[in-house]
Amino acid sequence: MADSKSIFGAGSKRINLQIFHKKAIVLVLTALLVVAPTNFFGIKASAFEASGKCGDNVYWSFDDETGTLTFTGEGDMYDYCYYDVWTNLFDSPFTESSDVKNVMIGQGITGIGSGMFYGCDCLESVTVPEGLERIGMFAFYNCESLTQIDLPDSITSIGIYAFDETGCINEPMNWENNVMYLGNHLIKARTSLAGSYTVKDATKSIAGYAFRYCGRITEITIPDSVMGIGMGAFFGCNGLTGMTVPFVGEKSDQTGETFFGIIFRWVEYDCDYDGYTYNSINVPNSLRHLTVTGGQSIGDYAFYGCDSLTEVELSYGITSIGKEAFSGCTSLESIFIPHSVTQIDADAFDSGSAVTFTCTEDSEAYEYAVQKGIGVSAYDFDAFVEQNVRSANAEVSVEEGVITLTPVDESLQISLYPSLKDLTAIAFSDLSGGAKISRNGTLYSKDRGTASFSVLGKEYTVVFDFPAQAKPIGELIRTANADVSVEDGTITLTLKDGETQINFYPSLKDGTALVFENFTGDVRTSKNGTVYTRNNGTASFTAGGVDYTVIFEGFPVEEKTVADLIRTANATVSVEGSTITLTAINALSHISLYPKTTDGDDVAFSDTNGVGFSRNGTCYAKTDATCQITVGAQTYTVIFAF
């Protein structure tokens, strides 16, 4: 059997399908018409084998009871050819089958072949796996019962007419502002679309012929989220004057065609087509301005013959410009070439071209322009960085490789985000002083400090230029129910009138975390780290390299006797001189005496006669007994009386 030629170009193979020359097909079809005319012109093919192979490693099986077609294996399905001789049918095993109602495509399959389900007008549901990358031309064409299909974000290529004449086109829920989406994939736009149009963020791919004959669109912007643009996506958009594209060619990873004209060309789809040309035959003459916001290179012949373009801007991140990439661009007046471009083919631009390069003096583009006699306008790379640094709460200045960030509006923190405004990634290193990196990669500081990073081949030092002390610590303390005064490393918190407790929170207002220690008096720490007290006391902490003592004061001072402080259960307390009498209440069976007083002082027991001790140190008696206790420097005799 001969290998069929893929409609995506020569070299792709499909097994078990024989290609006839058109004359031979005509003779065969004529003979068949005499023998069995009912097989053609509207009689649907409704019978096929129960299983088969439709890819080098892809297999199918059919359950005729449920009408379910199941695909297993890995890799791409075959692309099936389109015969434009009387029948106008693809030669897929399932072409125009009325038996197929459900399709299940297994994990590991990466491509749905062209013409695979052409005319399956009873097909209602399709399950597509994550990881699918390609849907071929006419894949679901004329599947009238198919109104919805969940397409994964992994898809980067959708061929022409893949969903034309399907129920999806007629389903209003799939349309948004005259544009049809399936998931995050732009499938089709109405020709009534006019003026400037921006493809919505999060869009992953644009199908072939999606904007076909949208001649009233004047400008279009495609976001960086788009990973693939189908062939002929903008065919017939003859009113375009400006475009912003995320890459040049079919795919962001440039695994497909890498010339600009591919998204404008008329797409051939017969079996004998042998590939594509890179010329600009279908690029509209109206197109003047082009911005390329992503991709890594401008490929060979990318803009060959695009003689209407007058202005091109290439993004930072592009590193090379290929052979004759701008050859024949006779109207090109200016091109912005970023510092990141380090390789330009000797024949990328025509000798004697009237174009002017905008680039930095230390760039490959500048040297190329000088050698080729091309006009050049140098720009300041530091100025570019200054305009594109993404910082919060800071003024930015850049000079000779130093970025100075100065806080504005008395801000207590500066954040420097991990990418420029054009989303060029930044990796920070060499942190010093107060500079730190958050979990999401943001560089930040609440104090003076430095860091460094490299962007597009140039090194920068970041300086956080805080004042010596942004605010006095007295203004930064977070406390409740107290007046604050600071003097020579001593912070005094005085209880306000009518309040009963002072809280001191575990961080300053600028977010500086505090670690408290050296508690005295009634000062304590809660589970969330807050220091609090209902009585006079002290604590200490260190902030900004300075040690501070905190005095909690202003609480009423009450003179209490040991009778007021003794902690006991089931007894009344009386004190006379150095004798404490505990008298049992209501004839209870025991009296407990705890090992601390109510103000927290320890109690030391001695000379115990007839008393016992529990595990937690509590002293108790069940009959008359005595012991001695020492509280502070005073020793008392305790009498247990029943």
Task: Please supply descriptive tags for the structure shown above.
5-stranded mixed sheet, 34% strand, elongated, 8-stranded parallel sheet, Immunoglobulin-like, 642 residues, disordered N terminus, mainly beta, single chain, 6 helices
Question: Topology of this structure?
Answer:
Layout: H1 22-35, E1 51-55, E2 58-63, E3 68-73, E4 75-76, E5 82-83, E6 89-90, E7 102-105, E8 109-112, E9 125-127, E10 134-135, E11 157-158, H2 167-170, E12 175-176, E13 179-182, E14 185-189, E15 195-198, E16 205-206, E17 217-221, E18 228-229, E19 242-245, E20 289-292, E21 297-298, E22 311-314, E23 320-321, E24 334-336, E25 343-344, E26 356-359, H3 364-372, E27 375-378, H4 381-388, E28 391-392, E29 394-399, E30 402-407, E31 414-416, E32 428-433, E33 436-437, E34 443-445, E35 449-455, E36 458-464, H5 473-476, E37 479-480, E38 482-487, E39 490-495, E40 502-504, E41 517-521, E42 524-525, E43 531-533, E44 537-543, E45 546-553, H6 562-565, E46 568-569, E47 571-576, E48 579-584, E49 591-593, E50 604-609, E51 612-613, E52 619-621, E53 625-631, E54 634-641
Parallel strand pairs: 3-7, 4-8, 7-9, 8-10, 10-11, 14-16, 15-17, 16-18, 17-19, 19-20, 20-22, 21-23, 22-24, 23-25, 24-26, 26-27, 30-36, 39-45, 48-54
Antiparallel strand pairs: 1-2, 2-3, 5-6, 12-13, 13-14, 28-31, 29-30, 31-34, 32-35, 33-34, 35-36, 37-40, 38-39, 40-43, 41-44, 42-43, 44-45, 46-49, 47-48, 49-52, 50-53, 51-52, 53-54
